[in-house]
Amino acid sequence: METKKALEGLKIAMQTELNGIEFYRLASEKTDDFKGKEVFKSLAEDEIKHFNELKRQYEHLLKENEWLSHIELGSPSILEGESPIFTEELKSRIKERHFEMSALSIGALLETNSIDFYRRMKEESDDPVARELFRKLQEWEQRHLSAITKQIDLLKEDFWADAQFSPLY
User: Fold this and answer.
1) What domains can be seen in the chain, in order of their start residue?
2) Which intervals hold domain Rubrerythrin diiron-binding (predicted)?
């Protein structure tokens, strides 16, 4: 991958991470579920880590025409359990939780787009450091998507029932 294309890709990646930061901060502020607040804050912090590393790589690549060999992403958020994002009590109040279901759906879309983008960047790069950076970012975003999807699956049947919605099969 030529440097110009790599720099353009890094700019797109940084903007994507900024979008994720703002979305997860807003979700953290908007939900009244205490666990949801903490998890959304944590997801925003992960995206900040991603942005900072992408910016560091961008600045170095612009100046030195090479990737920094040391990738600094820190540790990812821990997103575990049957209900990885919200408290179990949220499920009992799901009919009141339209925002939370929307936030999960939007989060899943953001993460899916990021995964696809980082996969393409990894495949198009011939530099081993760039490939490793994009592989790690893809892996982190996949963890986020898995937790969001697990949470959606846990809540969706009750949400649909309370909304009197039955999807066509």
Assistant:
1) 3-76+87-162 (1.20.1260.10)
2) 9-147
Residue 159 CA to residue 151 CA, distance in Å, equals 12
Do 20 and 110 touch, CB atoms closer than 8 A?
Answer: yes
pTM, full prediction? 0.83
Which pLDDT tens digits describe the chain residue by residue (169 residues)? Answer: 688 999 999 999 999 999 999 999 999 999 888 888 888 999 999 999 999 999 999 999 999 999 998 888 888 777 777 666 666 666 555 555 577 888 888 999 999 999 999 999 999 999 999 999 999 999 999 999 998 898 888 777 666 555 555 555 5
Q: What is the CA radius of gyration of the chain?
A: 18
For the chain, the helix, strand and coil percentages under 3-state DSSP, each to the nearest 5: 75, 0, 25
